[in-house]
Model the fold of this input.
Amino acid sequence: MNRYKKANEGIHAPEDVKEKAVRPQGRRGGYTRWAGAVAALLAVVLIGGIAMYSGKQPTADQPAPLSENGPGPQARGVGVPAEATALSAAQYPEIHPYPRQDDYFGSYDYSDKDYEKYDAAYDAWRADMEALRTGTDYTGLMDEFLSRSSTQFLAGAGEDNRVYSPLNVYLALSMLAETAGDNSRAQILNLLQVDSIEALRERANALWRDNYRDDGTVTAILGNSLWLRDDFTYSKKTLDTLAKNYYASAFSGKMGTEEYNQALRDWLNEQTHGLLAEQAQGLEMPADTALALASTLYFKAAWDGEFDPGNTETDRFHALSGDVDADFMHKTIETGTYYWGEHFSAVELRFQEGRSMWLILPDEGYAVDKLLESGEAMDFLLHDKHGRWDEKTQETVGAWPGQKRLKINLSMPKFDVSSDLDLIAGLKALGVTDVFDPAVSNFGPLEASTGDPQYISQAKHAARVKVDEEGCEAAAYTVMIMTCGAAPPPDEEVDFTLDRPFLFAVTGDSGLPLFTGVVNQP
Done:
């Protein structure tokens, strides 16, 4: 470890830390059915860098180093082979379990004592959530990125399914920007709609805190890790910034070895609950890799009112390639909101505790790609659905104009869709080009000890979303390798049947889309 100390004072790992690597530490809330609620993940692997973060008392925006004796009993993570040395481990914010009323009043014993316990538990949960959240208003802050990137990566699927996580890619590009300089950074900042790296850092940290949740009812875990090359040195300032603002753990090992590659795969699989194990199996950090940065998001949610499995029936889904059989779930929403636009209709399917899946059905004969390319679908997703109350006019303003409360007879197929995308062409089309060209790329802030130019040689994005009677589970990762060298609705009731290609989006606590996708065949 002397080479780290010599080049960057303070970047080294204590001997007792090198025994094993762990997942980020933090208390996991007790899980009820569906692990307490909820599903979706995302993992991002970029090439960047990191070193040990040295800190004392961790806070909501500051990760903790490994403890002297390794991870505590509440640590989350996986053991990593000896070839991957653990340099630091992020610690997630503590959140008291969300009090489920059934746990307090399930026996119909409504005594004052039960109320007092419930109120105390709720107050503790609420205090933790208020301490974590930043209060950021995201209205308009990311609309252009969310709309342009979703259209770029979802359109053109043909007869295939597509899944994309805009929040995952946003955070991945944010971390990449921390390692880049000059025009390489400027292009990323422009795509992410910020005017400085400081503004981006603040926003990325807010996105992390405003979407994180692990309280036994809703699970939305965002994890980051940095995979350091053991024969390089790096900028301590840049690596500390990544650790502090992105809750990033750090590991060190020999690039190009199967053991180090497997350590990365194991970490990703643990963070993503194995949902993308098949895709992760192909991940490698070649010998000429400078560094790797991995970011994950795991989100899992149960429906707010499950579908009755007894009502699931086989029916026909009209795929582009021809009709196919699918298992359709059925549920009546007695009083729901039906939305429509010029070329689509939409329904919100709520998870427990307020998160949602939005189901967007293009009009008959109107293609999913046309709806994406017109911008109408993303305009709807990003629009305030309910508006705000104007005290002067004494009326609600700003709400989506095409909506009506009515009874909705929902029929939707169970689906398990996935896709594997190469992001390079799409990111170039979105204006990020320099990082892929060794002749012009600039990764100066990283200060990697190599005389060779550095550039992103691979950018992969894999994602998967599963939906059944109980809820939704989803996962995604982005891997970047940095190499050296409508019509109005019926009056009272509507049948909403998703029996042809449709769009969906999963939103998190911030209201922003965590996942978007196209189902061309369930």
